[in-house]
């Protein structure tokens, strides 16, 4: 259910930028979701149309860009991406690893329609 | 009509973060130290809060924001009976508190008459870790019957808190909870975190918890002066 709060955050960011750019309509938003962020695309998309209701974002598309998470091997101190269930370092095969990046979720860009160039 | 794309690169939680900063500034101005208490359902949040209020209300003036997903205010009533000024938040089904809800609750509390604010989050080990409220300390209450694998299953929560309570230590002889295994998981995620093993039922370990809270509240009040 936390996806509802997240799409509200996305909508607020989009509306704020659209208004300061003098846009009449938001056509789409591009959202980056990293591998370990705990948001489900389907759930975000489901709430998106609903929260955009009667705003300048009504009818806007929401696009997702997935980026992989990153681990640090505490055995050989190399970092690597990729994962799955049984995460091991591709260099030394150690399973003593820690996630170091990949929890982010941010609005990368917004496509706007403005009355004049 | 022209179509253009603007680059934003703004975290989806940035709006919440701004409100959280505003909450913290408001608490700082009033000299209040705030704890955001998070736990799974049944870990003993309300019992710990009750004991904490009883144990500290002769030393500190305590305020409390209690939250539930429904209008059932029985936990708030327990906190009020124990002696705290209490605001009850009904999240109407939402699985976490956010900074905006706390901002509204702060407006209902006489902050100048409070030294310590306890914020009881919704019982959930996932979402509350993501929404900062503006509290000074994020505290997780674990309990032994939940099992020793929780740090491994909820890394984000264990990684994102500043202090950990391990409640229901009186049940250790009866439940399968390997404290070493649990601690290894916690250490991997949050090295050197302040940890308070205690039992609300037997009272063991509560004094250390009270003393820690009292010490941070006193330090905070000194800074505010």
List its salient traits.
heterodimer, A: 117 residues, alpha+beta, hypothetical protein PF0899 fold, three-stranded mixed beta sheet, three-stranded antiparallel beta sheet, elongated, B: 225 residues, alpha/beta, Rossmann fold, seven-stranded parallel beta sheet, 8 helices, 8 strands, 23% strand
C-alpha-based Rg of chain B, rounded: 18 Å
Work out the oligomeric state of the chains in this entry.
Answer: heterodimer
Task: Encode the helix/strand succession of chain B as letters.
Answer: EHEHEHEHEEHHEHEH
Give the integer mean of the pLDDT values of chain B: 91
State the end-to-end CA separation of chain B: 57 Å
Number of beta strands of chain B: 8
Q: Count the beta strands of chain A.
A: 6
Q: Quote the beta fraction of chain A.
A: 25-35%
The greatest interface here is: A-B, 33 and 28 residues
In CATH, the architecture of the domain at 2-67 and 103-113 in chain A is 2-Layer Sandwich
Rough outline of chain A: elongated
Q: Percent of residues of chain B in helical segments? A: 25-40%
Largest sheet, spatial ordering of strands of chain A: 2-1-6
Low-confidence stretches of chain A: none
Top-tier CATH class of the domain at 2-67 and 103-113 in chain A: Alpha Beta
Given helix and strand content, the structural type of chain A is alpha+beta
CATH architectural group of chain B: 3-Layer(aba) Sandwich
Distance between the termini of chain A: 39 Å
Number of domains of chain B: 1
What does this structure look like?
The complex is a heterodimer of chains A (117) and B (225). With 117 residues, chain A is an alpha+beta fold. Chain A has a domain at 2-67 and 103-113: hypothetical protein PF0899 fold (2-Layer Sandwich), CATH 3.30.2320. Chain A is 26% helix and 33% strand. Chain A is built from two helices and six strands. The mean pLDDT of chain A is 88. Chain B has 225 residues and is of the alpha/beta class. Chain B has one domain: Rossmann fold. Chain B is built from eight helices and eight strands. In chain B, helix 3 (74-82) links the parallel strand 3 (62-68) and strand 4 (85-90). Chain B is globular, with a radius of gyration of 18 Å. The A-B interface holds A 1-2, 4-6, 9-10, 12-13, 17, 21, 24, 27, 31, 36, 38, 98-99, 103-117 and B 1-16, 93-96, 98, 126-127, 130-131, 155-156, 188.
